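Protein modeling request. Please complete all fields; requests missing the sequence field cannot be processed.
Requester role: graduate student
Desired output: 3D structure, token encoding
Chains: 1
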Amino acid sequence: MKLSKAVWALALTVFAWASAFPAIRVGLEGFGVAGLSLARLMVASVALAVAAPFLGVRIPRRQDLPMIVLCGLTGMSAYQVLLNWGEVNVPAGTASLLIAVAPVFSVLLAVAFLGERITRLKVVGSVVAIAGAAVIAVAGGHAEYTTSAWVVLAAAVVQGVYHFATKPLLVRYTGLEVACYAMWAGTFFLLPLLPQMVHGFAAASTAPLLSTVFLGLFPSAVGFVVWGYAVARLSMASSTAALYLVPPVALVVAYLWLDEVPSPLALVGGVLGIAGVALINRRPRRADGGEAAGKATGRHTTDRPRHVNGHANGHSADRPDHANGHANGHATDHSGHANGRDRMDASSCQGTGHPAERKGPSAGFE
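Delivered output (366 residues):
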């Protein structure tokens, strides 16, 4: 069976965001935490600025600037610094497992500030995911690893804040536009690190230099573009499910590229974390009778798909919440209908002037 272009785009996104974790480890050797943080965002910002006119990216409204600033500070500036700092001692694959729990924090923020309903599945999923993160944090057996693991988890927290903050923006803008605004804002706030970035470009050897350019162009810039293409053409359920593949793919890439093998305890924690996020994003089945009754009364009993940021996103960041917008996203309460209803409701959720593009999870893994 021939795979569609959208499926290939989704696969490319997963690989791009997964490969970012080992690429960070290589880039750190030549740029350090500060230099790499700005260099990656700078390369991505320039690439997206060049492509923006061809991708239909609009100028944001002035009243949306405060929320864009929050997205840039959390999902780009703080996320990059914290993740890079944590990966000094935490293996790339293990870091991807920790970042995968970012949707938990998006959900908790949405419950606290947006009045979203807390369900039993969300409570259980949050507890399981946080427990998994705690297991990963102590899996290294020494203080440096444990401290760095908590720093990576802090990166997951700010990624969760990013996916939460993108929700009101995704009502008016596409996921790609929000990612561009946040990227440019995040780059601006890291400009004080310019001397470290310049030194890195001048002194780094070939491998760290290529890895840094790769991080900016592929996971950060291209990743957002192809992710937007994929989620505009695939169901929300398919897009969200694909983001669960980012940590396993990151583990494989880290093994092939860096010869890294995570500890068994870290893998156990990673499985718990992903399982918890899956529970959070799971939608309870509705009885056929209840749905029929809803139709009889003229009311829809099924919820419209929510934009989960996805970490996203994901990351983005490596993302990528997916969460409520990503696995957001990125990225992070990725909920979607596997039965195709999300396709019918997609256009009604936008109000952006881009009828062909759905606001998918803003990924948390970018």
